[in-house]
């Protein structure tokens, strides 16, 4: 954390909608700062110094190394015809996991903001409630010509920006049960079918990196982060088959050479949808962190994304060329049935795939003026991407 000690680095954020910051905002094609190349120090212009902040990252008191407690139980029974059945259970409990909180925030204030349609022109007769770290200004001033306005964030230590304290305050719990049916290789055939039900819950632990906490929305209510883990997948089904048919007796040399020595294998996988966050762009809680805001009233990972299914198939053939020479021919297909496994990708600005936008612009709703409002998205968590389509490949290898 030596580089995040509040001395070595400065962070600059300019709001072009702010009257005073707009005056010093760089205009294209003029460069913001003309810094020389190389590992040198670059000094901010004097007009920007008042908007620069220093951030600090440190370990909290009593920081501990994360620990994991694990227990498992497995029951297996042999069935007829070479089949075996198995039931297994796995429990994993993570404790003292790392979580970062911004300790340089004032106590939040409760505010309500109106909700508008995707065009921003029609009030939806409803509000979202927000715990905001910035207060409202309701009287006229030069910085607030049209009250009410949202005041700039007033941190307890104004000389610093975020003070990210890494704590051992998060935990996780995983429960998983798998039921499987297996057939060991006999007469050229093996088979496995497995179904897993699982549930993973955690507090949204952060990786141990310097910077703003990525998941904790409200440092004064960190326990509200508990919800489905990003790895949570309730159902997963896998079917795998390998078959090496010997259709003809080796005595029938010509036909046996043509129809034997094939190897067919395939894997079918189905997985239920994984959790998704109802992210909101625009920093509704005004904590200077644009990556941790969720739609009001919804917990972390409250939505579920689309499911996933694919079928992979491989066909192989061994051709003996005499002596120590052998030719291996293979044909492989991935996502054989070309299933459209849709997914979504949150865009950089969050405008198209997030659960809404928070816009700092005065709006009149329900007989009252508000300094900002929520704007609904065109499509909540819009599916705008997909996993790989059907792919096929062929290979040939000579062994000698």
Rounded radius of gyration (Å)? 30 Å
Give the biggest sheet. 12 strands, mixed
Q: Tell me the distance between the termini.
A: 57 Å
Order of helices and strands: EHEEEEEEEEEEEHEEEEEEEEEEEE
Q: Could you describe the 3D structure shown?
A:
This protein is mainly beta and 400 residues long. The protein has two domains: 1-59, no CATH class; 68-399, no CATH class. Helices cover 3% and strands 45% of the residues. It is built from two helices and 24 strands. It has helices at residues 19-24, 253-259, and strands spanning 11-12, 52-59, 67-78, 83-102, 109-116, 123-132, 136-137, 149-150, 160-186, 189-202, 227-228, 235-243, 262-271, 275-276, 303-304, 308-322, 325-334, 342-343, 357-359, 363-365, 368-370, 373-375, 385-386, 391-399. The strands form six sheets. Strands 1, 2, 3, 4, 9, 10, 11, 12, 13, 16, 17 and 24 form a twelve-stranded mixed sheet that branches. Strand 16 (308-322) and strand 17 form a beta hairpin. It is elongated, with a radius of gyration of 30 Å.
